[in-house]
Model the fold of this input.
Amino acid sequence: MISLTRLPARRAALARRPGLRENPVQALVWLLVLACVLAPVLPLLYASVQSKPIYDTGRTFTLSAYSQLFSDPAFWAAARNTAEFAGLTTACSVALGSVFAVLCARSDVLGRRIWGPLMAVPVLLPPLGVILGWNALYGPGGYAHSFITATLHIPFNLTSVPGMAVLGTATAVPVVFLVCRAALASMDTSLENAGRSVGAGPLRVLSRVTLPMLRPALINSGLLVFTLSIESLGIPLVLGSPQGHDFLASYLYGAWSNAVTPDPPSVSAGATVMLAVACALLWLRSRLIGDEARFVSVGGRSGPADGTVRLGRWARVLLGALMGLYLAATTVAPLLALAVESVVSQLTPLIAPWHLLTSANWAAIAHGEYIQSIRNSALIALAGGAVTTVLVALATTVAHRSRFALRRSLPFLLLFPRAIPGLIVGIGFFWSFLLVNPPGHALLNSVWGLTLALSVRSMTLAYFVLSAALTAVSTSLDDAGRSAGASWWTTITRITLPILRPAVFVAFILMFVSILNDYDPALFLATPNTTVMGVAMLDAEAQGVNGPVAAMAMVQVAITLIAIAVGGRLFTARLRRASA
Done:
């Protein structure tokens, strides 16, 4: 019999000990995440060392696929183009993004309250729509191409590797901007104020104090942009491949779709090489960012809130005008060109667009494969976003609010899918569906296989939002529930997750937008009945059908903006009800 004096101590000990009912739940969540992450990786590695496709008989272990890959001159040409594109994109985007972040966060540049939010817009836009808008405006025969080359005498060719790097820079600058601005927001301004107090000028303070403190953010964003540039598929498919400028991703896609032998093992070998490069970059990033403590500037008390550098009158106006011109040229103008192309029979600078107005492009996408792809994309985004958000929410609580033995591996598993190219996710799931049957064959030819691949590809975004929100929730609430005798599952579902409801909603919106706009994995899994918007647009663009493609891109942009606007309004309403 237990004495009454020992009951509180025993109850506290039981609260600290994982219950028998919660261990299976935590293990199940961990196994589901592990299976989702490894499903496209292990079959890919296996297929790359087989003499024949894994659905064929008489296979043997061999490394001939790697020998064939490395002996192909086209592979090395694609590798050189990829390295040049990634290097130029990373260098230019880090330089521009960091400067824009410093100007918006640490100066009184004209219009900084407007330029800051607008700088993040390209991250939310469909990447394929942005590419098509750039091609309509700056590509050969585009409206601005003759002005740039003939009037300004700038030798610009969007379909060359440096030209594609200009587009890559425009899409990557927002990533660098957001990372650097977040770092500046958490940085103590007292160090910069101290520099100014001893007579240092604004440029000297920025170069000697601010930029060195941004080094971890610059390394982080630079490696992230380099990784994203290596996996770029839409830019070379639309702009480079027709001119003979393949990247690694487009080279492998072309080898897969145009090969005499179906599903050649050399494609799996090339995808494995890309996977190894992505893993090496991920490891390098973790090693370099591991030394961030050397640059910590936030102490117990932060400095004055106003660390604004007062620019001169003309410098303030000139820099603000340059930022506005940059946003107009890289974001606003391409979207307007895309919108115009969707309502004209032909977009050409030789004829005024109002003489070529037509509704045929929008009528064309109202039936057939186009409308089917819109329905499939919406269904996949809704179902995949909802289920994946729930799974990631549970996995995040297991990783950060449990004593499960393998919990420390969950953050890496949740971050890994976004670090590997979407091309690899698509090829890997293709082999996985062939190997694991049932339910592999059913998933391979259904919309649910696409849902699984696209959801796994985007699950990292949900983890970013939920893990950041969970750090703001005190563990004392969990401890209070456990001390009252509640199990881990009851505590998480009754206390923690209800508090995280706004963050869960934001994670779902991000998942919806990301899945809706993604198309890389679907290129290897989509069938005529299960195609999605991105795949249908690429197929039509390859056939020269530009008008309906532009209309489809505008539908994608509209759905994205509506989802973000509705999500923002509902999120604000939830916060108001919670604070009332």
